[in-house]
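2024-03-11 09:14:02 INFO receiving multi-entity request
2024-03-11 09:14:02 INFO entity count = two
2024-03-11 09:14:03 INFO echoing inputs for audit
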Amino acid sequence: MAKKEYSFYPGCSSQKLASGSNYQVAVDSMCDVLDIQLNTIPDWNCCAASIGYAEGGELPRLALSARNLALSEQANPGQDVVATCAACWLATRETKERLHHSDDLMKETNEALAAAGLNVKADQNVRHMVEVLVEDIGYEEMGKHVKKPLEGIKIAGYVGCQTNRPFGIDGESFENPKYLDKLVETMGAEAVDNYDKKVSCCGGALAFSEPEKSQALIKDIIEAAYDGGADMIVTPCPVCQMNVEIYQNDINAKYKTKFKMPVVYYSTLMSVAYGKNAKEAGLDGQVIAAKQLNDIAAK
Amino acid sequence: MSANTAAVERYRNSFLKEVEANVEEGNWVKMCMQCGVCSGSCPFGPDWEHPPQELFMMIRAGKREEVLTSSSMWMCTSCYNCIARCPRELPITHIMHGLANYAHRLGIAPKNQPTRRFAKMFWDNLSKKGRVNELKLGVSLYFMNGFVSGIKTALAALPIGISMYKTKRLNPMEYFGGHGVKDTSGLHAILKKAREIEDAKMKKF
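2024-03-11 09:21:47 INFO inference complete, emitting structure
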């Protein structure tokens, strides 16, 4: 297949020594195998995620994402914008749609951007990396590169919220999307059937401001994975990954559970299956080690 | 006259009109048919003083004070379940954000609401250098209720911090710098202009 190029919006958590830096490592390894070239948007900024609204309001918030789109149009004209973070994707795609829906917003946003000599058309597609995999690469092609099938591992596909709603992946339902399960099986692992918490909320940013309420949600997400016989959870979202992985000790202390469930990214699974070593797959970024993946990567 | 008093004066007879004019996506409120699917779909549903469909009816009933000073809309986790399921396709998540932002701008949102305070910290953090400084965000969150409680919270969170540090997902040096955009002055100019345009719309009262 010919090399595919995208205008890449990495997002704050993907940066060096940030909370999702291991995600980026695995994405780079995965893209290397699939011949995907990510052209980073020069000088990209934060999208304000789903919590910036309170202080930011409507126009300053949209202007943030519009700046990224404007920079993308300059540096990578004609290329689809691709994000790996669910919140980055959502905010950017929402901005594109809102600007096209309202002439006033388009005008006001461009007035704001003009303060830095920028202008936005917002006519590129704004896509999540998962869409690139499913739609542009396809399961068959993804499967062709598997060198070490992830045999004997049972995985709960936790899609979460913002990769799934309000936009979601074409052809998938909001209530029971199947792409993550298909991807797990394409890598040679077994997907947990009927994982009932696959699109439930982990609390998102409110894991910080409302820790008890959020951890009650996270507990249910992990418990359902254990109930389905899962060895680990896989997710496409850096906030889901962090929230579901790092609070397990606190949850154990509060609820007298014994959770020790690894939570990995789809790109982690793919990198290992594609024969990358533990470091290249970002496995050294696991707070809860995914031992079965480490073993396969070491083979 | 404060922005809040000005708004009360102008929209004396209709809180719905006030919401339609000033709240992001507020023109959708009247479309709610009170089915309650949003409230039943909300992950923090039981924690809302007034769930979304109740807020919508309260807006139409003119219960301005009760709506805007409520902690309810601050319970939104942005999961978008309500949007995906609403039979009338109301952008409920955005309306909740809009109501929260409007109450915050008028200065009448509950002062100590933790998500309100966190959201402000998040915006201040990201807009300073254009990218989130995760370490400073965490530290300011832990210390938001003062020094003593901050030390307690920070100590409780320390094991998580250490595990993130060990896995190279947290950088202690970020406290003294950290990531940012190169064109900070351009970014600040954009945000300033955007804020001016938005404020000018409010001043039309």
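2024-03-11 09:21:48 INFO post-check: The CA atoms of residues 77 and 185 of chain B lie 32 Å apart.
2024-03-11 09:21:48 INFO post-check: The domain at 3-110 of chain B is CATH 1.10.1060.10 (Fumarate Reductase Iron-sulfur Protein; Chain B, domain 2).
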